[in-house]
Structure prediction request, 478 residues.
Amino acid sequence: MTNPKAAMLVIGDEILSGRTRDANMHHLAGKLTEIGVDLAEVRVVGDDRDVIVDAVQSLSDRYATVFTSGGIGPTHDDITADCMAAAFGQTIDVRDDARAILQAHYDKAGTELNAARLRMARIPEKAVLIENPVSAAPGFTIGNVHVMAGVPSVFQAMVESVLPGLTGGAPLHSKTYTVHRGEGDIAGPLGQIAQERPELSIGSYPFQRDGRYGSNIVVRGTDETVIAAAIADLQTALG
Amino acid sequence: MTNPKAAMLVIGDEILSGRTRDANMHHLAGKLTEIGVDLAEVRVVGDDRDVIVDAVQSLSDRYATVFTSGGIGPTHDDITADCMAAAFGQTIDVRDDARAILQAHYDKAGTELNAARLRMARIPEKAVLIENPVSAAPGFTIGNVHVMAGVPSVFQAMVESVLPGLTGGAPLHSKTYTVHRGEGDIAGPLGQIAQERPELSIGSYPFQRDGRYGSNIVVRGTDETVIAAAIADLQTALG
Prediction:
């Protein structure tokens, strides 16, 4: 597969302490698969400046596109924007375009744009704003990194703002064939079929339900005809 | 905080394609927090040998303990055991102790221990087996890395097998104070309190419910008295 490769950086102590269960990785994974971008790696790190800077530089060097979630709110533990500026050697300050967006939003709500809220207008000098139709405070794109919020509803809205600008590859199709036999029974013929069709990715995901073993065999590829042929092979071999 | 630091490596294309939502990270995060081990980083990678070897070496060098999930079943896409052997420069083959465990399990079930199932007895030469009370096929510990299954029920059982052998630090306590005001309203006093209590980790996690904004302020630390004092400060400042 030669689809463009992407990575994700999830930022936040609350994920690593087990307090919050991350939902954004699963959402982004599904969205990227739809448009033919391969999510190749995800890292989850805490609210630690050096670790964040190091991780984003490493992922940005290695992959075509990087998405981050978390740490761009108004509180003291929101350090993502400053980390991104540091990672790309840019200055960061309250920017007029971001301030205008916040001012309009809070004016409408009759809420004061205080010093804390104004922190959300701190944007690296050369970054491009990402629209946030949910709560106004923008994300931003810096280099090949899209910096987005951690709150799932806001993250999802920002993903929709970013997706149209991404260049995808051939969209990935997948079909699932369910076998009510243990993986150990099917692994031989399954491995054979996988070897015969190197252009496909064939994965086996075991389950146990009502005391019975089974496996979902997922066949993924860009050509639906080839996928259908592999499913037919599986039916012949395992059905 | 000077608790021992751990990392996790989640292995599997199905997580990165969005097909499966990982549950093991959240489970492990909670368990480690209970015993005073800090989960400092998580990486999610696909079924790619070079990437897995590189990631496990990097995490193993950097953290006291590493946990992996996924890729130790009987099918062709289960390559974790071989990757771990490569990462630690050990040979790997079917080992008698692991074979005996599988043989007993399948004899009892009246199932044949065929070539595919026997792959699950491939264990690096110097690894120590991890008990699997759910489905017998063992995990293993190699160097400072605990290699476990991806199926959540099996992963959780293996975590229970491994935890008693871990040296934790001071268990982390946490208290949550919920404010029904937006983060922008509370960020000032909150930042002040966080600065005054550097021995605590104080995080703010915003939510939107029934059209109202609010925030869960989570105070974490090893001394419950200090946590209670910080909660009292929060009540005074924000209540």
Observations:
- Chain A has a mean pLDDT of 92.
- The radius of gyration of chain A is 22 Å.
